[in-house]
Amino acid sequence: MTVLGYLANGLVFSSIIVLGSIGLSLVYSIADFANFAHGDTMTIGAYTALVTFGAVGGLGGAVLGLPYGFFLALVVGIAVAAIVAVGTEKLIYEPLDVDSIGLLITSIGIAFIYRAVIQIRFGSDFTRFGIQSLRPIETLLPYGVRVTLHDVAIVASAVVLVAGLHVLLQYTDLGRKMRAMADNPDLARVSGIRTKRVKLWTWVIGAGLAGAGGVFLGLFNQLSPRMGFNLLLVIFAAVILGGIGSVYGAMAGGFLIGMITQLTPFFSNVVEALPIGPGWLATLLENLITIEYANAIAFVIMVVVLLIRPNGIAGEGAT
Amino acid sequence: MSFLDDPKGAFADLTRPERWVLGVSVAFMLFLLGALLTGALGPTYFLFLVGLAGMYALLSFGLNAQWGFTGLINFSVAAFFGIGAYGSALMTAESSPIAGGFNPLVGLVVALVVALVLALLIGIPTLRLRADYLAIASLGLAEVVRLVVLNERWLTNGSAGVRGIPSFFQGWPVLSTFPETMPGLRLVVIPGSPIILGTSFWQSLLNVLLVLTFAGVTFFVLRRAHQSPWGRVLRTIRSDEDLARALGKNTYSFKMQSFILGSLIMALAGVFYTHLNLYVGPGDLDPITTFYAWVAVILGGSGSNRGALFGGIVIVTIREGTRFLNDVALPIDPAPMRLLLIGVVIVAVMRYRPQGILPPQRELIWPSAVDDRGTPETPDSGVREQKGGGGDE
């Protein structure tokens, strides 16, 4: 594959990571804890879409190789993920009398409960949406780019959702309230913002985007009860790289981490081609920069960012 | 200690949750005893469960030394456990891709040294981080360790794992042949269903003695450490790190010491697991092991070693109980059932009893300050206050 091909793959994967990381970052800044159940919220979205799509079928026509029914399933997946998250907030997180570390530990329990319920219902095997997989787009093949129409649909939908979020945050009342609350919750409260309601909307938006990300992840790869949990750390890496609490940082971080993980085979080619000083260093790098370690590279980047720039690449000021 | 002299008084001295735990434990033991006597539970399998419980207790002790004492959110328990297991397995197994065939004691030492190095590698960068960042970073680094173990086939045999591990006592003077030389016993408790105690029984018995030794030594070392001035610094760091720093303590250094202590104990649990299970694979580094240990510690009560012991037993009950349920009553796959139970326990503990069931109380106080001839009735000594409102550290 050419560089362009890797970049195209990276773009598709990044779209999914961006959808996940925005929600995680929003909840991190407004509900003020690291939500370990976020990955499993994505799984909920994916499996809801699987069930809905199985029930409604194609509904006639198709856009970008995807039947109308799939888009309906996407919407239902987003809605159910949001409802489940709001329900969890109301039932579990809100009545808790613990600090943010306690909430973090609780969210691990919630993550296990989500995953266990899905696994009891659907088993632990891999499944796919009942959509025929497409051949790569012919006109792009000469450039070494192997993307299908489905991949184009994933990127386009992600762009629409992210643009919608941008408009919401910048130009609506709710968005202003959310930004105010992320900045300083106490100040937001004394200026008359109903912080509880804003928090609920945060859960709706964050979990909804996660649900969409989960559906696309299922379309991009396949579905399994562990899909979300496996991606969770990559999403954390993206959020931390972008700077916790900054939605635009999360977008940038998600984009970069998605690209880096998909570009790993390209990097390994580069390392092999480069004349690196001592032989042992070259061998070490060649062994470590391989596709098996794509995620590990993302995690190491995450730790390095935490150490040298805890506010992320887009972060401003100390918190 | 006063339990033997004055059982009634000692019982009255217990707090309500302590009595409750005692009651449940006694009932549970009677149930197990009944199952053993009627032959529903094989004695060898029972000893395997006891060994497993001891292993989880060790794991929880290790985590307790980090989270319970110092407040370090370490989500890389599975990495240290796995490194301990792999360290000893690679040294002792015949099929080991490197070295192999050494005495298990060499394996133990190597495993502990490797765990120490890993603790430094993970600890040096992450222990300066804020609590929630430490959680994420340590989980990420544990995942890196898992990926390395999975992919470096020349070192670890990859996804096939390591087989052919000898028992821990191989090469020891008497103990190495002890299971073979012991006669097979045949006990008839209920006529018609004899219980046969053969070689595997004696082997399991040795394993249980081993884990009891490990856990016992760890327990007393930790209790001593927790009460010592060193332990008091750790507790201060846990409740207010700035305060500890203002008192002139190098908190980073103390955190590192507690991190290393805990990691070594986790590696010890891994070493025992290797010789109990006789097979080690990359699946043993799955993050679920980390969360088993976490459930044990927060359920038992953060900072309490008794609690960690109790939590370890609960974890084995959940782990093996779901398997048992699956065989007997409900045909539900045990894996998600286990996950569900673990999740529910985490949420329930955080909701209803965030300090855990047996929060540390008198075990934090130097014994001579409390057991003043068995009459802790002087209110101005601060004893009562501690007893009533314990875990609000």
TrEMBL record, chain A:
Organism of derivation: Halorubrum lipolyticum DSM 21995
One GO CC annotation: plasma membrane
Compartment(s): Cell membrane
Membrane topology: Multi-pass membrane protein
Superkingdom of this protein's organism: Archaea
Full protein name: Inner-membrane translocator
Listed GO MF terms: L-isoleucine transmembrane transporter activity; L-leucine transmembrane transporter activity; L-phenylalanine transmembrane transporter activity; L-valine transmembrane transporter activity
Residue intervals passing through the bilayer: 6-31, 43-64, 70-88, 100-118, 152-171, 200-221, 227-248, 288-308
InterPro entries, per the entry: ABC_transp_permease (IPR001851), BCAA_transport_permease (IPR052157)
GO terms, biological process: D-alanine transmembrane transport; L-alanine transport; L-isoleucine import across plasma membrane
Keywords, comma-separated and alphabetical: Amino-acid transport, Cell inner membrane, Cell membrane, Membrane, Transmembrane, Transmembrane helix, Transport
Family membership: Belongs to the binding-protein-dependent transport system permease family. LivHM subfamily.
From TrEMBL, chain B:
Region described as Disordered: spans on this chain: 368-393
Keyword flag Transmembrane helix: yes
Molecular function terms from GO: branched-chain amino acid transmembrane transporter activity
GO cellular component: plasma membrane
CDD domains, A to Z: TM_PBP1_LivM_like
Entry keyword set: Cell membrane, Membrane, Transmembrane, Transmembrane helix
Compartment annotation: Cell membrane
UniProt KW Phosphoprotein keyword: no
UniProt cross-references to Pfam families, sorted A to Z: BPD_transp_2 (PF02653)
PANTHER family per the UniProt record, alphabetical: HIGH-AFFINITY BRANCHED-CHAIN AMINO ACID TRANSPORT PROTEIN BRAE (PTHR30482:SF10), HIGH-AFFINITY BRANCHED-CHAIN AMINO ACID TRANSPORT SYSTEM PERMEASE (PTHR30482)
Name listed for the protein in its UniProt record: Inner-membrane translocator
Source organism of the structure: Halorubrum lipolyticum DSM 21995
Native organism taxonomy: Archaea, Methanobacteriati, Methanobacteriota, Stenosarchaea group, Halobacteria
